[in-house]
């Protein structure tokens, strides 16, 4: 077995968080990190754990078909409120976005702690300030958001057709979603 592949495997196995190739390179002496990652991903395909890439970061995870075996031992996180879920969706689909823009899309004011909850969960972050009067904060999603929801990038978020196929849009929601999608295309 190639020493570089073994070293990359050890670094990923010991890491508490997903790592980018550049972060892996800080621990491993020279070599083609991308090729080593591809070799490992192929080697672990079909095993109880798999090497996956989410948002440019790599980590080991339980094979999806075996996840049910671990559900009993896993701590269930606190569920997000509907307002927090809506805010997270708006941030994901429209990032970078300001608090005022989130409120305009939702049609109601956001309570003080809603965005804080998303930031504490590690799914939202500040992404600078908008160059407009008052210089409001901009919010965006994080790599942890992509990892948690099993997305490779924001392009993997479901579209209108996916949501319709899943039965998640009723006729009124569909009209609203289409207007949001049109508004998002204008940005």
Structural description of this entry:
The protein has 187 residues and is an alpha+beta fold. 45% of the residues lie in helices and 13% in strands. It has 9 helices and 5 strands; from the N terminus they run αααββαβααββααα. The strands form 2 sheets. It has a 3-stranded antiparallel sheet with strand order 3-5-4. Strands 1-2 form a two-stranded antiparallel sheet. The model has no long low-confidence stretch (mean pLDDT 83).
Strand order of the largest sheet: 3-5-4
The residue-averaged pLDDT reads 83
Q: Supply Rg.
A: 20 Å
Class derived from helix and strand content:
alpha+beta
In the CATH hierarchy, what is the class of the largest domain? Mainly Alpha
Can you identify the CATH superfamily of the largest domain?
Winged helix-like DNA-binding domain superfamily/Winged helix DNA-binding domain
Rough outline? globular
How many β-strands, per DSSP? Answer: 5
- Unreliably modeled segments: none
Tell me the number of helical segments per DSSP (H or I, 4 or more residues long).
9
Q: Tell me about the largest β-sheet.
A: 3 strands, antiparallel
Question: What's the end-to-end separation, in Å?
Answer: 50 Å
Percentage beta strand = 5-15%
CATH architecture call of the largest domain:
Orthogonal Bundle
